[in-house]
Design a protein that fits this description.
This protein has twelve helices and twelve strands. The N and C termini lie far apart (50 Å). It has 371 residues and is of the alpha/beta class. The protein folds into two domains: 267 residues, 3-Layer(aba) Sandwich (Rossmann fold), CATH 3.40.50.150; 75 residues. Helices cover 39% and strands 18% of the residues. The chain is globular, with a radius of gyration of 22 Å. The strands form two sheets. Strands 3-2-1-4-5-7-6-8 form an eight-stranded mixed beta sheet, sandwiched between helices. It has a four-stranded antiparallel beta sheet with strand order 9-12-10-11. The structure holds S-adenosylmethionine (SAM). S-adenosylmethionine binds next to strand 2.
Length: 371
């Protein structure tokens, strides 16, 4: 779809996937960062906020975020600051009107700013000001959701990721990029987007190879910019990849919760959302054999390993699985099959289904397989 001109536009079916994952993640993010005494303030920054609503009445991302906070059952003690940046005046004005309607439903401590301007310049202002004052940014989830490839420089993402508890949730606009990759006019934007000139190599590739090359490069650049964990999922219209969402964080817990958020929306483990066509894939079963194999490979030569260490591996972006699946989908079946043994308080315990904090697990070496 070419970038729409009007204030509102129709929501394409695959866009729902991006909002559902955002909603699921925020449901976990608000209490993790906002409860307890640790953080006085947390930020949700929507850098390409849009008008807050689609033509058919569906919620835009700023409203999804405000609603999750308004409906959250836990008491979020931290002050929640919403910072919505939108370049087009009519869309920013539309969003301001929606914010006024939402204001009474939010905790009195919440603050909401709608800034009419560009993401790059507005974020740079904020980051410069913090730097001058020698301060760090409060824990933040920064959503970066453009229509195309312009206006989201890796240099800004690097400055965001330099703050300890800041995460990015960004749209990597594959279809637009694939169209523009050979057009000289887009070179400066692509250089900024990747923070590198290396993307030019993809011009000589086609189809899946080009896609893998550009996705791989972007992932590498995000890591260089400070993301220790990178999780991605893909939004399709039919069989056509429209774009991918990349999530970058410094913390394995963030990656775990993001993977959980994605599995809820893509329950077959393919990390893909096909707008309007979910029913077609309902005959699939998620396959957890790869989780068991990954654990076996990672730990079979490690002897007795603590359950914490195993959880940390599953939590990280080294697997597509999350810790909510570890016990039921991996440890219990592996123990039943005699592939692991479990020690609690230094004693080998009988087969069971409980893996307490202090337990140790030994992944038995697999018997060699003969063809
Ligand atoms: C894909 S839409 C955002 C949709 C919104 N995040 C949602 O999910 O509801 C992109 C929005 O960014 C705005 N925009 C375009 N360039 C921008 C820039 N450089 N900085 C901030 N906003 C921009 C557009 O006007 C448009 O409203």
């Amino acid at each position: 779809m070419a970038a729409p001109k009007g204030t509102l536009w129709p929501r394409e079916p695959h866009t729902e996937g991006k909002h559902l994952v955002l909603e699921n993640y925020l449901k976990a993010w608000f209490p993790i960062l906002g409860m307890g005494e640790r953080n006085r303030r947390i930020l949700f920054i929507d850098g390409f906020a849009g008008p807050g609503k689609y033509e058919d009445g569906a919620e835009g991302s700023p409203v999804v975020a405000m609603r999750v906070l308004a409906e959250h059952p836990a008491e979020i003690k931290a002050e929640v600051v919403f910072f919505f940046i939108e370049r087009k005046r009519d869309r920013a004005d539309h969003l301001k009107r929606l914010v006024a309607q939402w204001r009474p439903r939010l905790p009195a401590t919440a603050k909401i700013h709608v800034r009419e301007g560009s993401f790059d310049a507005s974020m740079t202002d904020v980051l410069d000001e913090l730097e001058v004052r020698g301060r760090k940014m409060a824990p933040a989830l920064v959503m970066i959701d453009p229509f195309g490839v312009k206006g989201m420089p890796m240099s800004v993402i690097r400055r965001i990721m330099a703050n300890r508890n800041c995460e990015v949730y960004l749209s990597f606009m594959w279809e637009a990029m694939n169209r523009f990759v050979s057009e000289p006019e887009f070179e400066p934007s692509m250089d900024e987007l990747f923070g590198s000139r290396e993307w030019r190599k993809a011009r000589n590739l086609a189809g899946g190879e080009r896609r893998a090359s550009l996705h791989g490069l972007y992932q590498k650049q995000l890591r260089e910019a400070g993301a220790k964990q990178v999780v991605q999922f893909h939004l399709f219209a039919g069989n056509r990849l429209k774009y991918s969402v990349f999530f970058g964080t410094r913390h394995p817990l963030g990656s775990d919760r993001m993977k959980q958020a994605i599995w809820k929306v893509a329950p077959f483990g393919d990390f893909s959302f096909r707008g309007g066509e979910r029913a077609q894939t309902s005959f699939l079963e998620p396959d957890f054999a790869p989780l068991q194999e990954a654990l076996q490979e990672q730990f079979e030569e490690a002897g007795w390993v603590s359950i914490e260490k195993i959880s940390e591996f599953v939590r990280s972006d080294a697997t597509i699985f999350h810790t909510g699946q570890l016990r039921l989908q991996a440890l219990i079946p592996m123990e039943r099959a005699g592939r692991i043994e479990v020690k609690v308080n230094d004693r080998i315990r009988k087969k069971g289904s409980n893996y307490p904090k202090n337990c140790l697990i030994n992944f038995r070496p697999e018997a060699p397989r003969f063809l």
